[in-house]
Amino acid sequence: MGRKSDRKKTKNKKRGHSNDTANLTRRIVQFLDSNYGEEFNSKQIIKKLEIRDSLSKGAVDSLLSKLLESGHVSKNPRNYYSSTKDPNFIIGTVDYVNPRFAFVIPDDPTQNDGDILVKEADMKQALDGDKVRVMVKPLKGKFGKSEGKILEIIERDRDEFVGRVEISPRFAFVVPDFKKMHKDIFVHRGDLLGAEHNQKVVVKLTEWRDGDKNPTGKVTRVLGQAGLHEVEIHSIMAEFGLPFEYPQEPDAEANAISDKITVKEIKARKDFRDIPTFTIDPADAKDFDDAISYQVLPNGNLEVGVHIADVTHYVQPKTALEKEAYNRATSVYLVDRTIPMLPERLSNGLCSLRPNEDKLTFSCVFEMDRDANVIKHWIGRTVIHSDRRFAYEEAQENIDSQSGDFFSELTLLNNLAKKVRKRRFDHGAVNFETVEVKFKLDEKGTPLGLIVKERKDIHKLIEEFMLLANKYVAEFIFKKGKGTDTFVYRTHDSPDMERLDTFSGFAKRFGHEFDIENERKISTALNKLMDEIQGKPEQNVLEQLAIRSMAKAKYTTEPKGHFGLAFAHYTHFTSPIRRYPDMMVHRLLDHYLQGGKSPDAEEWEQKCVHSSEREKRAADAERASIKYKQVEYMSLAEEKDYEGIVSGVTEWGVFVEISETKCEGMIRVQDMDDDYYDFDQKNMRLIGSKTKKMITLGDKVKVRVVNTDIDRRTIDLEFADNEGKKPRGRAIR
C-alpha cells in the first residue's frame, strides 16, 4: 500500500512539474508575442514576468532553447529573443476614454471581434480621434478583451486645441478644454503670443519627443479672458475647427455675381410666378431655402409645389465658392450665431426666397387628390415669386383663428400634411419628438431665460412636404436608373436588436413596456412608447436613450432605405443653402434630367463621407454651445432644490436631468458620503453597502447645484436630502 501511495505522489509531483513547465512556456510565448518587434535576454524575461523561485528561473534558458528549436521564437547573435508570430495589425481610430486607457475602433469591423483596448503606456503619444496602426496582442484566455499596442500614428485628427493658460515663473501650460485631451500642453514663455494667466488660447502642437510626458505647443491665437461670452463661444468654434470668418476669395466671387435674372434663363424654366407662393420659417431666419405654392387644378385636384433655392445655379464647380462650401459642408447653429456654409451675399440674398422677388428654384411639384394621394409629380428647374413670408407663429395663428393672409390655403395644406403624416406612420415611420431648448440672451450673451421649443401643426406641415419632396426625388432617380445610377442617398439602418433589448430594460425602469419580440413591429412599439411619455418628466431622457440605441443616419451612394422614416429611398434635396449634400443632389439630378450618364461612384462616396463627418462636427459644436449656456444659466439661477430625474448611472457618478431647466448635472460617487455605493452595471444602478439604498435610472429625485465649471462645461449636484449642505461653488471662469 505504502509503495503505491509513494508511486502516486511521485507521479503527481511529476505532473505538477509538467504543468508548471507548460504554464511558464505559455507565459514566455505570450510575453514575446505581446511585445512584437522587441528583443529580450533571459534575465529581462525573468524580470518582466516577475519569476522569483529559483527552479523556474533556472528553467527559462532551456525553455527558450526548446522554443527556438520549435520555431516559436528567434534569437539574435547577442542572445536576445523575440517572437516569430505574425501579429494582427489593424488600422483604426482612437477613442481616448480616460487618462488610463483608450479604445481603437477598427476601420474594418470584420478584422477584430470588437474594439481594441490600449493602455496608456502603449499609446505611443496617440490622441483621441487619431488614425493609428495597432498591433493586437494575443487574447488572455478564451473570453479575454482584445488588447493592443499602437505602433504608428498614421494621421493626427487635430494638432490645435483650445484651453486656459496657466503661467508660472519659469514656464507655462495650456490646460485643454477638450475632455478627451488628457495631457496639458507645455508652452515656452516666449511662445505665449502675449497671453496672460487664465486667458483662453488656441495652441498648436509643435513637438512631442519620445520619453516626454507632455507635448510642447505654441499659442497661435489669444481668445481673451476665460468666462466671457464671446471668448467662450470662440473657444467652442476653435475647439471644433469652425471658421471665424469667410475667406476673401469666395466672398469676392459671391459679391461679383449679378442679381439680374435674364429672359433666356426664365424661358429655360417652368414659370410659377403667377401661382400663390409663400415661405414659412423661424421668426429670426434670413436664409429662406424652401417655399410652397398652392393651386386648385381644373380637374378638382390640388397642386402643391415644393420650391427649393437653386444654389448650384450660382455656385459653379471648380470655383473658390464651391471649394469653401464643400469644406464647410453645413451651416452650424450655435446658441447666439450661425456660421454659414455660404457667404451672406448668397445665403441671405441671391438664394434666399425673399418675398416680392423673382427667384430661381429647383422644384418638386405634386398633383394630389383631397385624400393627399399623389396622383403624379414633376421635378425640374423653375422660377417663382413669393407673395408672403410667414414666421411659424404667424402662420399657426392664421390657421387657429381662420383669418389672415392665405388662411384657407394654409388650412388645406395642413389637412393634407396630417393625412400624409398618418400614412407615413401607418407604414412604420418612427415618431421622435425630441425636446429642443433655446435661450433668451441679453446684449452681452448672458442667459436671461430658457425656452423649451414647442412643435405645432405648422412645423409638421413644412416637415411633411419637405420629407415628401426628398422621398420622391430619391425614388425618381432610383427608378430611372434601376438602382445603378450614382446618387446621394440619406440612409438609416435598422436598429441593432441587442441595443434595443438594453433600451427596453431602461424603459421598464421608468414603468413603460417596450415589446421587441416581433422585429417587424419595432416602429409600432417605439411610437406607442413615444406617445405614452409625451409631457412626462422622463420624456427627454427616454427619447435620448432611444435615439442612442438607433443607428446613425448618414450620406452614401448606396441605395439603402431609411428605417426611421420607413422610406425605401430617401435623400436631402430641400436645404442647399445650409447643406452641401443637397447641392450634390441638385447637381446629379440636373445631370440626369439632361440625359447624362452615371458618374464614377467613388468620388461621390468620398464627398458623402466628408459631409457625414462635417455634420457630426456641427452637431457636437451645437451641443457644446448649448451645454455652455446651460452651465452658465445654472450658475446664475436661484439657489434652491430642484426636481430631477436620474438620466444615467455610472461607477463614478449619477447623472440627473433637472426637470425645470432640462440641464443635466452629475452627483459624484466620491461625494456621496452617507454610504459606500457599489455599481450594478447590468441593472444600471448604485447600491449602498450598508443601507442597501438603490439609485436607479429613472428615479425621481431632488437635487441642488453645488458647483459649475464653464471650462469643462459641467454642473456638479448633490442630493437635496444631504444633511451636510455644501456651500455653492461659483462658475470657474
Automatic annotation (TrEMBL):
Primary localisation category: cytoplasm
Keywords: Cytoplasm, Exonuclease, Hydrolase, Nuclease, RNA-binding
Protein location: Cytoplasm
Superkingdom classification of source: Bacteria
Domain S1 motif intervals: 639-720
Region (Disordered): 1-22
Molecular function in Gene Ontology: exoribonuclease II activity; RNA binding
Matching CDD domains: S1_RNase_R
GO biological process, one term: mRNA catabolic process
Purpose: 3'-5' exoribonuclease that releases 5'-nucleoside monophosphates and is involved in maturation of structured RNAs.
UniProt name for this protein: Ribonuclease R
Taxonomic placement: Bacteria, Pseudomonadati, Bacteroidota, Cytophagia, Cytophagales
